[in-house]
Amino acid sequence: MQTISRLPLLRTALDALRRAGGTIAFVPTMGALHEGHMALVREAARQADHVVASIFVNPTQFGPNEDLAAYPRRMAADQSALAQAGVALLWAPDAAEMYPSGFTTEVRVPSLSTMLCGAHRPGHFAGVATVVCKLFNQVRPDVAVFGEKDWQQLAVIRRMARDLDLAAPAPGRIVGVPTVREADGLALSSRNAYLDPQERLQAAQLPQAMAAAVAALRSGEPESRVLGTLRDALVAAGFAVDYAELRDGDTLETAPVLTPATRLFVAARVGRTRLIDNMAVEGG
Length: 284
Ligand code: AMP
Known about the structure:
Order of helices and strands: EHEHEHEHHHHEHEHHHEEE
CATH class of the largest domain: Alpha Beta
Mean pLDDT: 97
CATH topology of the largest domain: Rossmann fold
Radius of gyration: 19 Å
Number of domains: 2
Helix content: 25-40%
CATH superfamily of the largest domain: HUPs
CATH architecture of the largest domain: 3-Layer(aba) Sandwich
Bound molecules: adenosine monophosphate
Number of helices: 11
Number of strands: 9
Strand order of the largest sheet: 1-4-3-2-5-6
């Protein structure tokens, strides 16, 4: 696997890959890789002939009081995991390469970016959409693979690609991969490294309380009561709840009645760590 951090070299390496024939699947990440990321890499390998991954801790998607400086960085371990998984090329630019002096353009998807996480992290999704738009233009993949753990992010990226008629990845070739979880249900996340042993035990109560809420909804309990019970359970478990809401999975609009697209979305903080998760209400 080649690791590349300069744009002209990326272009040369991609040209060489393309000359060798075949299609390219792209997996963007912020590194500190775990099994969730590796599931995306495996899906990418199923989707195309060559896999290109990126590691870029994107400063513009972190708020001023967020964890940019503390975000885990494990480049050597990440490189060997990606190489072992058969990734052809790792794109790992630094911030100066991504945002050269004078950089000013921003991509915003307002309708999907102002609710849920967007309401608690102003500017976050503009940072995500802008960097992913740049990454798509830099790599020009046939397919791009993202995790459903960050469901709102996936919705924002799909809308951006559609609204801007992005040609690469090809229309409709933004693939979502189901959330990979620990045995106790906690969604894998690079940020789980922040949890101390006590907080790690608490953290598992987030997906467990969400699964109980989904079961209650399926058994016909009214939504408002279920959401109230869920919030109470999370507060009792020591969480500060940013939101716990039912939304349409496609539009992210509030879901007054349950449909097959309805999902439960939660963001809650344990200690200094913010956890997010989402689950389908019907059909698992
Ligand atoms: P990140 O490095 O956290 O920016 O995540 C990079 C990609 O991995 C995004 O598409 C995430 O949605 C995805 N991802 C992160 N955690 C998981 C997980 N537990 N299961 C599936 N995909 C994940």
